[in-house]
Structure prediction request, 208 residues.
Amino acid sequence: MVDTVFKYFPSLSEQQRQQFSMLEALYQDWNSKINVISRKDIDFLYEHHVLHSLAIAKLIRFRPGTKILDFGTGGGFPGIPLAIMFPECQFKLIDGTGKKVMVATEVANAISLKNCTTEHLRGEDEKGLFDFVVSRAVMPLPSLVQIVKKNINRRQQKNAMPNGVIVLKGGNIQEEIRPFKHIVDVSDIHLWFEEDWFKEKYILHLPL
Prediction:
């Protein structure tokens, strides 16, 4: 239920509330045509996908003008919920699977998301510079860093946290953070969201 989002983010504008409210019907419809969310998960869209994506908004309040790349967006997560949350930031959503990008594109258009672009593109081929790269359990952190380190803007710092990679992860993360153990910051999502599903769910921030 969308009320789960409103509970944790009570100061949303009317437009933001409307955009979040529209997501369920859109994803239900698209998922019946193109399976971008597992059948058992689609009934928990707001908790498992929207709110999970918005954990990043609990970690950092992106300042206006921040440029963010959503690497391996799938059907639009975490990029679309974050683009709703931060209308003055610029988001680019990419994925190597064309039909998933099409869903993200159609959803963004349907809710009139003006600060969000999408492209069918592998991360290796993305040439742009961004303040942050966000991702949700796409690949192990060392592999992701190898691909996206070229895309991090090192010249300009707009935010309270250093530019770099912010990824959502679950389960045992020790192995993949080992190469970065002195610089990676690990936050427990369950400290922000009380639902049991968020136990053993983490956000990793790695300055690059």
